Batch of 3 targets.
Target 1
Amino acid sequence: MDDDKKSIAVIAIAIVVFLVGGGWWMSRRKPVAHNATPAVVTGTEAPIDKPDAAPVNLPPLDQMDGFIRPLLGALSSRPELARWLATDDLVGQLASAIDLAAVGASPARDFKVVAPASPFVASGRGDRRAIDPASYRRYDSLVETVTSIDAASVAKIYKTIRPRVNEAYQRSGNPTGNVDNALLKAIDILLETPVVKDPIPVVEDSKAGWAYADDRLEELTPTQKQLLRMGATNVERLLAWLRALKNALG
């Protein structure tokens, strides 16, 4: 029982915090339609191998909140996590985040309670504006949290809680869908993110707040652009972790 509790806690942090913990681009970005087609989707459509038997002591979906809250609250003191745990339908939120990320859309609008406290910062003037390195540092602790978790353990843990995540995923508008495929698509989209060294030029946009000056970067999916604004060092660390996770998922 203790191992199952720890497994559920770790995977919730690894996936939820990574996909949505830093999901705010540069202020007022427009949300992407839920049925949008991602610019780049690679990788297999094959379902992830599942365990032979259902996990023991896993509550029904509608009882997962009460099961997860005390476990995660005891495991981490991160304020972002505490604010998210105070909301409802935690597994449903996780499934929705995977669903959106699988088409390159940002799940950020559904997780405003964990938005970074400090704002996006651009340096320079006029046509020579660029992302300030201070903006990257907002995500250092997030990246450290994710990359410190063993990817192989995360893959094993995902399979443990998969029945409830898949149930929530199917209830969220994918009645015949498979959350394994959605998760792999989300990972593949992120793995296509380029590593861009400083400076990264940006321009003010009356509708979106800020946009990349380079059209090639601006045309990336919202989740790829989210990853970019964490800075090259953090991007490289996260991409390495995601490759390890994908390999562990088989």
Note: Strands lie at 122-123, 130-131, 202-205, 209-212.
Target 2
Amino acid sequence: MEKQTNNPPVDKRAAVESMFDSIAWRYDFLNHFLSLGIDKLWRRKAIKVISQHCKNPRILDVATGTGDLAIASLKLNPVSVTGIDISKKMLEIGREKIEKMGLSRSVTLLEGDSENMPFAAESFDVAMVAFGVRNFSDPLKGLSEMRRVLKENGFVMVLEFSKPGSFPFRSIYKFYFLNILPFFGRVFSKDSAAYRYLPESVMRFPDNEAFLSLLRSAGFETAMQITLTGGIASIYTGIKK
């Protein structure tokens, strides 16, 4: 299943790794606090969407962080769940959490780069990522790599922030992301740079039809979008043919 890879130094990759290492100790708390717990509902919805397409799959969770989506995917009764991330600190916290929950035999977390994965082609039935694609150095390359490791008819699921289109919700959303979120992130994590980067990365990221186009460019067919909570987040899906 494994293959040998070489990870060339990438400026954004190093910066993202360092940033998430620095906020790992507060990451779970801030995720739930700043989203008022809605992120948990979004993950459950994402898993429900996967369940409609796959039974007992081999799952890859890319940019797994502390493993929340990987843990949630156990409801699918998978053959295996493997999560990868470039942040060693996030993985450490994820492994501790998984061990405390008694799930060490069910979920495996590994250090790995989304754009150069240590897996052979056609290793998984499902490749998923939550709130991670916008942190890829090259989103198209990362999505193409996810396609490479999927089996024929494999399913990709991307849960990511998107920008609401209607006024005044769009204005409120933008104010929250660019002002409220960085303030509380700075207070609780002591890393002001990280919580400036995160909302800015959301504002820059191609969403809605632009992201569906990116999925198609990566080779996925039947690309679809499900909007969540007024368009604050979206579930994007596709199939490898």
Note: The CA atoms of residues 61 and 122 lie 15 Å apart.
Target 3
Amino acid sequence: MTITAGQVKELRDRTGAGMMDCKAALGETKGDIEAAIDWLRKKGITKAEKKSGRIAADGLIGLTADSRSGAVVEVNSETDFVARNDKFQDMVRTIASLAPKAKSDLAKLLAATYPGTKLSVEAHLKEMVATIGENMSVRRTRALEVKHGTVSSYMHSQVAPGLGKIGVLVALESQGKAEELAALGRQLAMHVAATNPIAIDLAGVPPEVIAREKAILADKNQGKPAQVLEKIFQSALKSFAKDNCLLDQAYVHDGSKTVAQAIKEAEGKVGGAIKVAGFVRYALGEGIEKKGDDFAAEVAAAVKGR
């Protein structure tokens, strides 16, 4: 089959491997990106897929958080020029304000009445497309809520209040002091923005991710006894958790302790036990392919077998 320049570019962006290695991996796996990532890892060419994803689409992340609830949305546009438009920014901010009631249901959010109109959010968006002349979409939304505690937020690369490129919410359950808890929550949200964890702890990592890691290790250690493989896997899991699980990660504000240790220490100041109930991190355009860039010609030349 023919391997396209776009496939090579996507694999390179996701793994950091060289173009020719990416081309070879895609050839071996018949163009399957996920299988190609595993192929590269088995060859030792790359350790793992970059977790951050590819920041390829324009638009804005919008978020809102009010004491015990909050929500984040991603609204995409074709160009950064539109993302800097005041009308577009007002729309994203308004949609974000409606998101907590939608409770992570995108269809419900799109069906909500847009304030000041008789239109739904979806219908208002279509009117904006007709007015501005550029395609737009509400791509996703996620809400968090706690009974006792706080939902804190952080926006990285903020362009206006509540609007930016990476939006994070962290929900903490606690009966402790609200002000101290909110301050900790913001620090943790900043940590999540920087490290992009997969889950709170190993128990929250999707089973298919664990299975994939195990399969790669088994392939790398063919011929070893089952008991030896299990020890290797358990050791690898600890390393995996340090990189990918929030509570096991080194705390970005103090690398001498893990996030779990930092939270435990904060309990004295807060005046009560603290539990991370959930978090969400949206980076603008992650996983979206954007047409046209200066890298295309370089990749095309590699694909043609130069």
Note: Confidence is low (pLDDT under 50) at residues 51-56, 292-296.
